[in-house]
Amino acid sequence: MKKHNFYAGPSILSEYTIKNTAAAVENFAGTGLSLMEVSHRSKEFIAVSDEARALAKELLDIPSSHEVIFLGSGASMQFCMVPYNLLNTKASYLDTGTWASKAIKEARLFGEVEVVASSKEANYTYIPKDYTVAPDSDYFHITTNNTIFGTEIHRIPEVSVPLAADMSSDIFSRPVDVSKYSVIYAGAQKNLAPAGVAIVIIRKDALGKVSRPIPSMLNYQIHIDNDSMFNTPPVLPVFAALQTLRWYKEQGGIPALQKKNMEKATILYDEIDRNRLFKGTAATEDRSLMNVCFVMNDEYKELESAFNTYASERGIVGIKGHRSVGGFRASLYNAMPKSSVEVLVEAMKSFENNI
Ligand SMILES: *Cc1c(COP(=O)(O)O)cnc(C)c1O
Hints:
Number of helices: 9
Bound molecules: pyridoxal-5'-phosphate
Helix content: 25-40%
Oligomer: single chain
Distance between the termini: 25 Å
């Protein structure tokens, strides 16, 4: 049976990414060797790394003021690398969920952290909009998409200080004005590649302003100076990222992906709003296009596990909600085809008809 993969992360990748990566694991770039057993300093792998960084720049329209690097160990490492490299005296953070609060906790190790607003008291069901950011902040950190709670920042806040953003679960899903950011980072396993690497977009002139010593591996400048090859990068995830980026380009780039993402999210939210069994958990205007969170209405609550089973019998995988929200979460990343969302919507309709 065809599987429809709605996992939140690691999550669905394009068939193009998986096939080409599998082929390179057997025979990489005609070398007769596996991608996993070739020097990262071979000309074949350097070409992969260079093309991946160049394609990321092209797709996101990244200005020459910024550099792109791939770093091992995921988004959580960036929670500390961002303040390590950029927080001199004070930074401001917006608390919109579990990941945002983890970023805040790490930043506090490096200086004064002002949490300008939080939606924690409402279990992070909305994005706070009424706040001011101190103009003497070194940066203002936001989490553009809250993977666990299904909210997304649809309008980037107008503030007088540079932005820093965790875009782990919505990078490449919509256009970004990179010039507004000192740093953007994303763990690869939501919208790019297998786990093990993060993509970091960094404004070069934002670096070198902190006085603390920075260990080499945590120093953005060192990774930039070494063309993202200071140490052995996670070669397989970087190779897979390149395949995904090529596929994004082939799909028509970011605007085309955004259009598809809007279509997919619309058909699912429309069904959640129409179906008497279900309701969405996020504030309507803050609904994420990537992670759609919904629960069963109170009078049908006891049917949640039955729906999960019903869905899995139709090949629908990974829709169980995160424990802090409950219910369901359907993740609709770039590689998710509209036809799979239609299968989920059909299942919701036919389940309702059987009640
Ligand atoms: C998944 C996720 C993370 C954590 O990523 P790791 O690579 O596991 O460290 C951080 N932020 C957001 C928004 C996420 O979705």
